[in-house]
Specification:
Chain A is α+β, with helices and mostly antiparallel strands. Chain A has helices at 3-16, 18-55, 85-94, 132-135, 148-152, 162-169, 172-175, 205-223, 247-253, 260-268, 293-307, 320-362, 364-372, 377-413, 424-451, 454-459; strands spanning 61-66, 98-106, 113-115, 118-120, 125-128, 140-143, 157-160, 185-188, 191-199, 256-259, 282-287, 314-318. In chain A, strand 8 and strand 9 form a beta hairpin. In chain A, helix 2 (18-55) crosses helix 14 and helix 14 (377-413) runs antiparallel to helix 15. The longest helix of chain A is centred in the last third of the chain and has 43 residues, at 320-362. Chain B has one domain (30-60, 68-233): P-loop containing nucleotide triphosphate hydrolases (Rossmann fold), CATH 3.40.50.300. Helices cover 30% and strands 24% of the residues of chain B. The chains are: A alpha+beta (461), B alpha/beta (252). The A-B interface holds A 1-2, 5, 12, 16, 365-366, 368-379, 454-455, 458 and B 51, 56-57, 76-77, 80-81, 83-85, 89, 91, 95-97, 99, 108-109, 111-114, 156, 160. The complex binds adenosine-5'-diphosphate and magnesium ion (MG).
């Protein structure tokens, strides 16, 4: 019997027992759709985490943080120099695997910002070199980044993120326009600084899409002449550009950068108890090649150790840990989700096997007749395997379709920051798995049918 | 060389320590084009003999040659091929597939000989024409009378143009009149040159065939074979347990 005939016979058999076949397929449908849905959710989470990781500099970014002298070196406390600009120069000069270094001086306590009659607090104000903008993957939207010249002259200039703009001058959602704060004066801890640049608004892919849809809707309403004014006092309606944006993006939008020298001279010099040399709070380093991360770290560590005479008043922090955490989390999510989906596929397979066994014992006589007119064991075997595969095939196809519905259902129950991403790969995998399960589930019943004795099957009733 | 050669064939069943010899040392030749009946009382081993002759069953002992092939040496796959191409079966209970219509039932053997769809249809229609059923092509077996169902079964047996046709009590479930029509069909097949073997418990049906092989307790009762022994000499009680078919007038 040709494969085509076997498939036709299989489809007819399924059609003859519509309800039974549907119930049998249900297991496969659920298995396939849950496999795809699970993978789409995990994929979405992964994408979101990676976006956030890249937003804060990617894995190539290494950070040196100043830290108190460790307990066992307390006796050497007086020799500890802290992280200084000389360390930055030393790394630039002596570490070939280091691409760029930017010193960073955080102001402690973080000063209050005020402008436009408003006050705003943020936790990300730092004096840096201009190169910091590149290391932290910033892009200027309005104005310019300050230059090395601005730094040298310790000019009172700064560059801010959109979060700060929103807090002091109003966000586009509130005012209906994208306010450009360049040229305005902002007080940082009481000292006036001129805003010379603003970074672009950072957000996840998903937030960007949501915002675009919203804008399009509003434009449409306006075109239809509908007023969007809400009666009553002005209030936040739960979405002000920050909702859903992950912490990483929010932090990035709340950045205030000023030239290192300005931060030191204009803001820190007034403070007491400070050593003459500008002590840095940290350094941001971009390395040349992520595959040589270990080498780069060794270089950095060695140079720092030599310069600090073995006193560990600094610590190296990579984003590797974060990347690894993402990987572990994604891996675990995949594994547990895959396990559940796999079990439901397996249950579906057992269901198919069960129904095929029932089906052949119903059709013992038919099998006997087919053999009497010349069907070989192989013909019967193929027919049964094809039938169970066809059930799995149809179930798998239906599962592909229902996976969309399932994902929408899950998302409506638990709104996530990261939109699920259905990949062709996961669809192909789930569908392939259902086919393989169909074949496997058919093997035992098919073998049983193929081995039936002709005379006994003919006499059976 | 005979078409079918049986040498010392036995079929032995073991039921709870007891040995049942369904066939006991049967030696038999059937030639090409012969029209013969296998006759004997119920339980004498007729069906067993037919199953072994038709490659549906294998003997416990002895050898069989069918058209020159040593059956006991053939694989199950080869046996399926032989049943498919060289043999046609007609059973007492028709054995049609209830889910298929008339044409599809007749096409069934050709599916397993790898014949294309169009030719299958043509040949099935031709076979159905031979049994005068061209008007019921789309019916299911359950929508047909017993005689019509048996004619479909005969068409199915014919469709692969086999050398031998076996019929196991083909009229056993039919009334006298339909039984006659079916028997007439077999006679015609024989006249067309096919080897036809009728299995029956009814001496009056056996009387139609030129050669009768009588079986008793799994053995061939040799005196009856080859020669027409006269209906009155057969024991009347022999087949009373099975449905009795009314007498059929032997052909001239
Ligand atoms: N599968 C079997 N197991 C045990 N005994 C069997 C089996 N098949 C047939 N027989 C026995 O073999 C003998 C011949 O059976 P069968 O060939 O069907 O007789 P007939 O067709 O002449 O009525 C009977 O006694 C029957 O009980
Ligand atoms: Mg019988």
């Amino acid at each position: 019997m040709s494969l085509f005939n076997a498939i036709v016979v299989g489809l007819k058999e399924i059609w003859a027992h519509k309800f039974r076949s549907l119930l049998t397929m249900l297991g496969i449908i659920l298995g396939v759709s849950s496999l795809i849905a699970m993978s789409a959710l995990v994929e979405g989470m992964e994408r979101g985490s990676r976006e956030a990781l890249i937003a804060v500099g990617g894995v190539e970014k290494v950070r040196i943080e100043a830290q108190p002298v460790p307990v066992e070196q307390r006796n050497l406390r007086d020799f500890a120099t802290g992280v200084t600009l000389s360390d930055v120069y030393a790394l630039q000069r002596s570490a070939p695997e280091v691409l760029t270094v930017s010193p960073e001086m955080r102001l402690e306590p973080q000063p209050t910002l005020s402008a436009n009659g408003k006050v705003y607090r943020t936790w990300n104000i730092a004096g840096v070199w201009p190169v910091q903008a590149q290391i932290m993957e910033h892009t200027i939207e309005h104005g310019r980044m300050f230059t090395a010249y601005d730094d040298e002259l310790a000019r009172s200039v700064c560059v801010i993120g959109t979060g700060v703009r929103d807090g002091l001058f109003g966000s586009p959602e509130e005012t209906g326009q994208d306010i450009n704060p360049v040229g305005q004066t902002m007080n940082i801890g009481g000292s006036p600084f001129t805003i010379i640049g603003m970074f672009q608004h950072y957000e996840s892919e998903q937030d960007r899409k949501i915002r675009e849809v919203r804008l399009a809707e509003e434009a449409q309403k306006r075109a239809l002449g509908l007023t969007n004014r809400v009666s009553g006092p002005k209030r936040s309606r739960g979405w002000n550009g920050n909702r859903g944006g992950s912490f990483a993006f929010r932090m990035k939008n709340n950045t205030v950068y000023l030239p290192l020298n300005s931060a030191w001279i204009k803001l820190r010099s007034g403070q007491t108890n400070l050593p003459p040399e500008p002590r840095l709070s940290e350094m941001e380093i971009k390395i040349r090649d992520i595959s040589k991360l270990d080498l780069a770290l060794t270089e950095i560590r060695n140079i720092m150790m030599v310069r600090h005479r073995g006193i560990e008043d600094f610590t190296l922090r990579t984003q590797e840990d974060w990347a690894e955490q993402i990987n572990t989390f994604i891996h675990n999510a995949r594994l547990s989700g895959g396990l559940i989906a796999g079990i439901s596929l397996l249950v579906g397979g057992i269901g198919i096997m069960n129904i095929m066994l029932a089906s052949i014992s119903e059709r013992i006589r038919e099998i006997g007749i087919r053999k009497a007119v010349g069907a070989g064991g192989l013909d019967i075997f193929t027919q049964i395997v094809v039938e169970s595969t066809v059930i799995a095939f149809v179930g798998g196809l239906t599962g592909l379709v229902t996976s969309y519905g399932l994902i929408h259902l899950i998302v409506s129950f638990t709104p996530t920051d990261n939109a699920p991403i259905i990949t062709i790969g996961s669809m192909a995998f789930a569908f392939g798995a259902s086919l393989i399960i169909g074949v496997l589930a058919g093997l035992i019943p098919a073998l049983k049918a193929a081995r039936m004795n002709v005379i006994q099957s003919l006499r059976y009733d | 060389m005979a078409l079918l050669e049986l040498r010392n064939v036995s079929k032995i069943y073991h039921l709870g320590g007891e040995e049942i010899r369904a066939l006991d040392d049967v030696t038999l030749d059937i030639g090409i084009g012969e029209f013969c009946s296998i006759i004997g009382p119920s339980g004498s081993g007729k069906s067993t003999l037919m199953h072994i002759l038709g490659c549906l069953d294998s003997p416990s002992k002895g050898t069989i040659k069918l058209d020159g092939t040593e059956i006991q040496k053939a694989s199950t796959r080869e046996l399926a091929g032989i049943r498919n191409r060289k043999i046609g079966f007609v059973f007492q209970f028709f054995n049609l597939l209830p889910k298929l219509n008339v044409v599809q039932n007749v096409e069934l053997p050709m599916i397993y000989s790898g014949i294309g769809g169009r030719e299958r249809r043509v040949r099935a229609l031709k076979a159905l024409e031979q049994v005068e059923l061209s008007n019921r092509l789309k019916n299911r077996p359950s929508q047909l009378s017993g005689g019509q169902q048996q004619r479909v079964a005969i068409a199915r047996a014919l469709v692969n143009d086999p050398k031998i046709i076996f019929a196991d009590e083909p009229t056993g479930n039919l009334d006298t009149h339909t039984g006659e029509i079916i028997l007439a069909l077999f006679r015609r097949l024989s006249q067309e040159g096919r080897t036809v073997i009728l299995v029956t418990h009814n001496p009056e049906i056996a009387a139609v065939t030129p050669r009768r092989i009588e079986i008793r307790n799994g053995k061939i009762a040799d005196k009856v074979d080859a020669k027409l022994a006269g209906l009155d000499r057969l024991p009347k009680a022999a087949g009373s347990a099975e449905p009795v078919t009314a007498p059929v007038v032997p052909s001239a």
